[in-house]
Amino acid sequence: MGKWRYGIVLDAGSSGTRIHTYKWLKPDKARKKATKEELANLPKVEGIDVKKIHPGISTFGDKPEDVGPDHLHQLFDHAYTVVPEDEIEDTPVFLLATAGMRLLENSKRKTLLKEICTYAKKTTKFQLPDCDLHIQVIPGETEGLYGWIAANYLLQGFDKPDAHDHGKDHHTYGFLDMGGASAQIAFAPNATEAEKHANDLKLLRLRNVDGTSTEYRVFVTTWLGFGVNEARKRYVEHLLEAMPDSDELPDPCLPSGLTVTTKGRPVEAGSPEDKGEKTHISGTGKFDTCIQSVYPLLDKDAPCADPPCLLHGSHVPAIDFDVNHFIGVSEYWHTTHEIFEFAHKDKAYDFHTYQKRVNEFCSMSWSDISKGVKDHAWGNKVDETTALEVCFKASWLINVLHDGIGVPRIGHEALHGGFNGTKEVIDKAKDRGYLDYFQAINKIKGVEVSWTLGKMVLYASSEVSPADPDVLAVGFGTNEPGKGVSSDFQYAGGSPLRWSDDTSPDDDDNDWHDVFTHDSPRRIPGFFLIALIILVALIMACGRERRSSFMHRMRRAFPGGTRSKAAGKRRSKPLNLKLNIASKLFGSNTPPGPAYERVLEEGSASTGGADAFELPDMDDSYTDADHSDSSEGSMRVGRTSGWATPQISGTSGWVTPQISGTNSKSFSDMPAYFDAPASAQVVGLGIGSVHPSGPPSVVGNAIARGGLMARVDSRERLSLDADTAPAHGLRGKMGRVASSKSRASSPSKLRSLKESVD
């Protein structure tokens, strides 16, 4: 795997969907390469590709089954050409819908999101573990907060606070965003306002490359219906309400000579609007009147339940423009720069200059504007649709900025003791940085300012392992006093990645996947490692019996201690040690030392004893059925770590072990595992049973019963006399005796047992 992590965010807006692809260094590699200063910074996220298609996904509300093949298909196909093939499965994808989807009916919205999730999982290999997190309609507040992160990230308000000192210990920028359906504002109030309105703020937590965290308290709000397209719809509704019986509605926000439908499209010859059969709108080209006509749309007279308020009665803490400097993106940029700041893209927004240029443009006739568009008088990006809409948009933007939010009108309003900032704004915008009250931007250092970047910065930050295990999670939520993670906390969605212990200086060549390259220094040890893994896998696949058989043959081939006593001491110990280690791997049931053949030999109890042996551990692979007898009258034999458990066999009934000798024990001396009748009696450990009224009967050995009756703890505990406990010679499934080759169930031992009973 490479050194880069990739991430994809689909911005599903009201007019179209943009797919953004980002990359950043994996946390372990970023930490190794970072300088001391860089360690205290956020992960460096780079935007590497953007593609937009039309229309917005909200248009598929009535036909959700088409959103995949007709819309998402080309976006995902494009992403496959950007993200390296070996990184696709590790690349998270987010589809975050905004205002267009917020306006969709709830049932249609849910169905559409479900269809998107199903299509993405079936047709792509991108990382999509949780559709509720990765595919959703985000609130306007979340969109605004992501934008605030993106702007301050690019301006380095986070990483270099000393270089962005606005006074009053304030170093971050406010963020303004306006789309087609909604508008957002996000800013960190000054200390006084932050304390006064603490419950209205969002707590944001980010994590730096070194694992330390930083927290910010930000106010965010959104105004649904205050985007330029929705504002235009409300404006037309007001025109219709003002003149309900008129077929032609005069509009000062359109150039003179331009006639459009109520939907904003130019009237075509022969259409119902052209014939006077349907209401249409005619432009008058009076921009000053346009500004006055648009002002009521701000709804400044709405009741304010929690003062102070700005638009539509929405509460907003007081903005201190001495320290709160705002960045405006999207429509703030397009409307102020695509036409009116052509060839002046490095200039800051200036109300006086801007309004002058808008007046000049909107006072032109539509025929002159159309000719200018064809001659590219305002650049190649300005088409007739843009020119048709820009006068209303400019009027709306001016109203929102100055009468709505309250941004000072530089050039008209005297500030800082009567100082007029117009000349400085125009001539030294770049030198001043972004310390003006408002600055419309599109890119910072070549990177587009988009809320999607803020989302990905937050995600990349969450992947960094915390320096302290007690460090709280990366994300955001309500600023609840005393709570680091609020009840509504939104986790960033990443998983902490452990930093690598590899200290090689060349990170680009340190991935283990390069062991197959001819010039890799890890090629030889890499092949040995792979071979060893395969060998161990084959050994484990052979099964326990084959591994035991292999060890048995090894012990026969290397018995040890055969040349001389001295040589045996030198050889047997290391050899036995090696075989003992191997037995752990191969599953042998015998201790190091000479191996014994599994043969049935004649003998008696007097020829051998159970003075030093131990039963093996039970095989973990056994099931309960392995320890039970399915025949009628049998009982289940459980595992024990002590003496034998009584067993029923045939008609012999309950049995009580009775062992004679120096170490003899009666059943009453032992733990009462079962209550046994006093009339039943047996000699030994359950190999045979003796009924008081008849000859002994052989119950059967461990092999016949399909399982071992008892498990013995140690050699010391079973140091019994061989004559009184012949059955102690059992070992494993074959009943092997450590000090003799004869079996406990051999004919000689059974005869001895019978004679002892008689």
UniProtKB/TrEMBL annotation:
GO terms for molecular function: ATP binding; GDP phosphatase activity; ribonucleoside triphosphate phosphatase activity; UDP phosphatase activity. It holds the Pfam family GDA1_CD39. Belongs to the GDA1/CD39 NTPase family. Residues 614-623 have a biased composition (Acidic residues). Residues 257-281, 607-657, 722-758 are annotated as: Disordered. Residues 738-750 have a biased composition (Low complexity). One of its GO terms (biological process) is CTP metabolic process. The chain crosses the membrane at residues 524-543. PROSITE patterns: GDA1_CD39_NTPASE (PS01238). Keywords: ATP-binding, Hydrolase, Membrane, Nucleotide-binding, Transmembrane, Transmembrane helix. The active site is at residue 143. It comes from the Eukaryota. ATP binds at residues 180-184. One of its GO terms (cellular component) is membrane. The keyword Cell membrane does not apply. Residues 642-657 have a biased composition (Polar residues). This is Nucleoside diphosphatase.
